[in-house]
Specification:
By secondary structure, this protein is an alpha+beta fold. It has three domains: 41 residues, no CATH class; 171 residues, tt1808, chain A (Alpha-Beta Complex), CATH 3.90.1570.20; 38 residues. It has eight helices and eleven strands. The chain has a six-stranded mixed sheet with strand order 1-3-5-6-7-8. It has a three-stranded antiparallel sheet with strand order 9-10-11, with helices on one face. A two-stranded parallel sheet has the order 2-4. Strand 10 and strand 11 form a beta hairpin. The radius of gyration is 29 Å and the shape is elongated.
Length: 278
């Protein structure tokens, strides 16, 4: 293969109109069909059929971890309820290279968000080469004594150097400590919390902070999302309750107005009857 052919091979991939391609390569004595055949043979090898498990049989650290992942997923979907250009996944394997898949080196962030993808259908794993090379834009790890070193060490390096994930957050529920990093030119830069202890996520367009309350009948300290104004972004159930309560209050106000109007009408009728009797 000549140097000229190597250069023209890549260029051929970007030429959509076959007639234009034939004219260009004919001038140099080339043949488009041969070049595309070479590209398919050497530049675009078939991806081997490798079994990609969706779980490794390892349970989550605790019931709190399971509920917290569900809560984050609920909040993101409420926050972006009018959008379908993102995917949110929890406790799900991310396959980012064939070597990783062959080695069964499973990597599953506790929670992650990928933006700019078709979020209209579910996945049971995230396979990068099936998603146009897209990797997570946000990753949140829920630490425990058994995962703390890995979350702050090897996983952080993976997300920083290989995934190039713009934002990485770690939460330690035992000490209620929230940490965050933003990807800069030279790697991750530690994010600074505001006076409330919240961290701003530009990727999520929301604050991430702690909230004490009930979720699925469990009272605990949870990671929650807050909007730019500092208002709590509700879960689907909370949003439904707010709407139902607003409707109840509207109906109650309407009933009171009707009762007041009826009472006033009765008073006027009584007054009219009195005046006729005089």
């Amino acid at each position: 293969m000549t140097l000229w052919l190597c250069g023209e091979l890549r260029l051929a991939c970007s030429i959509i109109n076959k007639d234009m391609a034939e004219k260009r390569f004919a001038k140099k004595g080339g043949n488009v069909g041969q070049i595309i055949e070479v590209i398919q043979r050497y530049e675009i090898p078939d991806i081997p059929n490798i079994d990609l498990p969706t779980e490794d049989g390892e349970p989550l650290e605790s019931n709190w971890h399971r509920l917290q992942i569900n809560l984050l997923d609920d909040l993101v979907r409420q926050h972006w309820r009018d959008r379908q250009d993102f995917f949110a996944g929890g406790n799900m394997f991310v396959y980012y290279s064939l070597q990783q898949a062959r080695n069964r080196d499973y990597k599953g962030p506790d929670f992650f968000i990928v933006k700019g993808v078709d979020g209209s259908y579910a996945r049971d794993k995230w396979v990068v080469w099936e998603e146009n090379g897209r990797l997570p834009d946000i990753i949140i790890e829920l630490m425990s004594p058994s995962t703390l070193d890995e979350d702050l060490g090897n996983k952080r390096k993976l997300y920083e150097r290989t995934f190039r994930t713009p934002e990485y957050f770690c939460y330690d529920p035992e000490h209620q400590q929230l940490l965050g990093w933003r990807l800069g030119a030279n790697g991750y830069v530690r994010s600074k919390a505001d006076k409330r202890g919240w961290l701003w996520s530009a990727e999520a367009d929301a604050y991430i902070g702690l909230w004490i309350g009930d979720y699925h009948q469990t009272n605990a300290t949870w990671l929650r999302l807050f909007d730019k104004a500092g208002q709590l972004i509700p879960t689907a159930a909370e949003a439904g309750y707010v709407l139902a309560e607003a409707e109840r209050q509207r109906a109650e106000a309407e009933r009171q107005r009707a009762d007041t109007a009826e009472a006033e009408l009765a008073r006027l009728r009584a007054e009219l009857a009195r005046l006729k009797g005089e």
